[in-house]
Specification:
The structure is a single chain. About 50% of the residues lie in helices and about 15% in strands. It has 6 helices and 5 strands; from the N terminus they run H-H-H-H-E-E-E-E-H-E-H. The protein has helices at about 5-15, 20-30, 40-50, 55-65, 110-120, 135-145; strands at about 70-75, 80-85, 90-95, 100-105, 130. Strand 1 (about 70-75) and strand 2 (about 80-85) form a beta hairpin. The radius of gyration is 18 Å and the shape is globular.
């Protein structure tokens, strides 16, 4: 396991959580995921490594990891709730057509965040979700309009 996984598991211990095989497998699955994942996708990834881990265990572990501030869940668009680790701050683009969720780094919205703060005294949280259409859905809409 890599250093990032070990840092996350150490943080789990520091915050009073136990590092169980299921929790370790969930952290590893989250790190290996190419995108934000649903609880069902995580359960499948964990069960591929640990077949005896039930989906309900994955849900309970996700709840615990969320309460401890290790994992966050995001409600974006019309798609299912997706999960990711909180050690990398990022925002989200949510496609209202296909349900895709794209993570973007804070620097992409930095100018907006500064303007919101200057004009309104508003400070963005670690989570910002912008709704719209992803590149593929926008191209499909353009082709359909021709």
């Amino acid at each position: 396991m890599d250093d990032r996984a070990e840092r996350i598991l150490a943080l789990l211990r520091e915050r009073g959580g136990r590092v169980t095989a299921a929790r370790r497998a969930i952290v590893v699955a989250l790190l290996r995921a190419p995108h934000h994942v649903t609880a069902e996708e995580l359960a499948a990834a964990v069960q591929a490594q640990l077949p005896d881990v039930h989906q309900s265990t994955v849900y309970r572990c996700l709840d615990t990891l969320t309460e401890l501030g290790i994992v966050t869940h995001v409600h974006v668009g019309r798609g299912p709730v997706v999960y990711h680790l909180v050690d990398e701050v990022h925002h989200h683009l949510a496609c209202q057509v296909c349900g895709a969720v794209i993570g973007i780094t804070p620097d992409v919205v930095h100018a907006l965040a500064e303007r919101l703060h200057e004009e309104f005294g508003f400070v963005l949280d670690a989570h910002l979700a912008l709704a719209g259409r992803c590149r593929d859905c926008e191209l499909a809409a353009q082709r359909a309009a021709r």
